[in-house]
Amino acid sequence: MRPTEPPRLPGWARNMTTGTKATGTAGAGRAPDPAAALTGTWTSPWPGTGAGTAGVTGHTGGTGRTGIGPLPAPRTGGAGTPPPAEVLAHLAGRHSEGLRLARLDRWAEAVEVQRAVVTERERLLGPDHPDTLDSRYEVGFALSRTGRPGEALREFARTAAGRERVLGPEHPDTLAARQETAYVLGQLGRHVEAHRVYTAVLATRERVMGTDHPDTLRCRHNLAFSLGRLGRPEESYAMACEVAAARARVLGPDHPDTLVTRYEVGWALGQLGRWAEALRTYHEVAAARARVLGPDHPDAFAARYEAGICLGRLGRSTEALELYRDLVADRTRAQGPAHADTLRARHGLGVNLGRLGRWEEALAEARDVYAIRARVLGADHPDTLVSRREVAVGLGWLGRWGDALAVYRDVAQARQRVLGADHPDALASRQDEAHCLEQLGRSAEAAELHRQVAALRRTRATRGNRPPPG
């Protein structure tokens, strides 16, 4: 029987969307953690309120729409008539199809669908109509998941600017788009700029929404992540602990948002070299997620993956190898052999084979994972390039430095092309190349590469003083 009254939630919890993803940009071996979404009564629109017409998407970023405020009128034709309702309904259906593709991790297809919807909505409704901006937001989100952060940044910056013009700079939808801008700045390795955006958005959220609003806490979570990427692990750890405590108080200790921040506490502990504490934290998060979400939930798998990293760091590679074998089997059964998370677990397995000195097996695993990632994700996807680099690592350990050099150069060129010459991953690849040249006795070439990398790092440091976009 339907209740006659809405659930008793605080006023600020009504009509909420999932907001922005409560994670940051992880390092190459780190599993993404999509558990930041608000769920159940926290995000479901109450029947009869007329709210929630924008919907809640299947990813943790949402559309960034709160359903608050009036919508601008659509463009009209020469006769002063609005676009036909059936045309708008068709576009809404295609937008929903793009979200469905995203939920299935078919991100490249989602990009194409949403781009086509943006083009049509812009023509019919105008570039600043909320529906147009919703689809543009989804284009950015899908691009950020296909290893194209530069393009994603442009889409989010345009969305944020449009929402600011229409809704104002402090509107929740504007803030959601700005927060995603910071997320992709982090993906681009531009952590100083990302930190500035997160700081500005957090100040506005605290003033407008309050310190305990879940969207404010999500932004503080992202800021904690950003501090870690800036090499400020103590501050990152302290802020993550504060957010975890606040989320436990506001949402409950087993709420997915609380667990995602505890997951981040584990990462910060690892950055501080406190791997035993990090391992214990990830075990606790994995157990809670298995209990609340189910043992085959991707987020439960993600915490198990991080526990494997901790075991490796603690020199317990035999245990890590066993963990990753079990995780590969579970993810293959639950998610499929070519799923990105399954391949990430296989990558962890290969790394630990190498740590145990089983380099022929490690090289074979790296080559297999690389081939599947290239086919599924594309040759230039960051995960594909991580596996390509792992092939070079194996070749080097087997003394095949000439072969390794060719692979390292391919990876360096791809990262420069996709991420930019001064991205940290591109710079790391140039350093790999220099190390390989040193092993081959080509010290003059290696020294020149080191000089180039130093110059690019200086350029990067200078750029960090520029104001961020949006």
Automatic annotation (TrEMBL):
Q: Where is this region: Disordered?
A: 1-33
Classification via InterPro entries: NLR-like, TPR-like_helical_dom_sf
Domain of life of the native organism: Bacteria
Name of one Pfam family that matches: TPR_10
Q: Which Gene3D superfamilies does the entry link to?
A: Tetratricopeptide repeat domain
Compositionally biased, Low complexity: which spans?
A: 17-33
- Which residues fall in a coiled-coil region? none
Signal peptide range equals none
The name this protein goes by in its record: Tetratricopeptide repeat protein
Originating species: Streptomyces mashuensis
